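Appendix C: a fully annotated inverse folding record. The material below is reproduced so that readers can follow the format used throughout the book. The structure is listed first as tokens, followed by the designed sequence.
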């Protein structure tokens, strides 16, 4: 994602959220790691928190990379492109560290691990009618592509891979293809969607309550503290960090929880969140949202109920 962490004022290109029309982002901050080989499935299943063992070609699963103590080292999506090939869809800032850590565990010859070349580009379409924008641009039909699925298509003389997600309850398509083709697609789609800047993309993810690694989630967080249980498999067997994940689940709770907040005045990352004048959490991201400010952060588990009144640097707020 973009480097912007806090949007200081309402931007000229500010668009409503959720999108009233399909929104188009030039997702140049995205990157992918290619894992392929006869041993790729078994090996990757032991490295990440998603169930790669049962992931069928054309399916995608959100995942973490954890350390042995259950802390989050990376966030990404695992896309199965063939029975023995996978893409790890991530951000450019995460990719070097993710690759370096995974390479330390490559002890077998029937496995290749490499970054997708910079010649590839990514676009995002967001909004419930994104398929309509795609078809209106004359790019063909993607059929009944559903959340958690991916497909390949011949578009404009090149191969395009489209992955469907639904983060924060707002449908999204991530489109991967060679960079030159991505630019042609962007120009065609811009006639049928609202083009959004990188700053707008950052604002939208905060409004949508979507945590970002390196900002809202770091190696200080346990997996369950982030609230993203869809990135954890409790059935696939052993993987790095699984022992702590299972221990947390057995105890039934974590001490703090990722949450969304609304404040009546400007707030910023790093501010303490208070309840009855006692610190109970901290803000990690914030952006203006009309007459109020939307913030993401962590709060003590006993105080996480929706509607709980909180404060930050004099601004009154509540848990959303």
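Designed amino acids, in order:
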């Amino acid at each position: 994602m973009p480097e912007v962490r806090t949007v200081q004022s309402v931007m000229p290109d500010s668009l409503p959220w959720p999108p009233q029309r399909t929104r188009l982002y030039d997702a140049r901050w995205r990157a992918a790691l290619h894992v392929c080989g006869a041993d790729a499935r078994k090996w990757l299943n032991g490295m990440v928190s998603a169930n790669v063992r049962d992931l069928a070609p054309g399916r995608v699963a959100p995942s973490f990379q954890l350390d042995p103590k259950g802390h989050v080292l990376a966030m990404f999506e695992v896309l199965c492109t063939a029975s023995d090939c996978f893409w790890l869809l991530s951000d450019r800032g995460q990719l070097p560290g993710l690759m370096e850590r995974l390479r330390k565990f490559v002890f077998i010859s029937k496995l290749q691990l490499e970054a997708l070349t910079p010649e590839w580009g990514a676009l995002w379409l967001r909004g419930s009618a994104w398929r309509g924008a795609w078809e209106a641009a004359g790019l063909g039909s993607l059929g009944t592509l559903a959340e958690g699925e991916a497909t390949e298509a011949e578009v404009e003389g090149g191969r395009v891979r489209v992955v469907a997600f639904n983060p924060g309850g707002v449908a999204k398509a991530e489109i991967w293809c060679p960079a030159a083709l991505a630019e042609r697609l962007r120009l065609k789609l811009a006639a049928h969607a609202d083009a959004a800047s990188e700053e707008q993309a950052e604002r939208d993810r905060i409004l949508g309550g979507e945590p970002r690694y390196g900002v809202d989630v770091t190696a200080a967080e346990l997996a369950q503290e982030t609230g993203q249980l869809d990135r954890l498999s409790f059935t696939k067997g052993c993987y790095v960090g699984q022992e702590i994940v299972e221990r947390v689940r057995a105890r039934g709770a974590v001490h703090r929880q990722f949450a969304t907040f609304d404040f009546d005045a400007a707030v910023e990352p790093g501010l303490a969140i208070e309840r009855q004048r006692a610190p109970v959490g901290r803000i990690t991201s914030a952006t203006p949202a009309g007459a109020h400010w939307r913030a993401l952060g962590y709060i003590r588990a006993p105080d996480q109920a929706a509607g709980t009144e909180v404060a930050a640097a004099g601004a009154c707020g509540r848990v959303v």
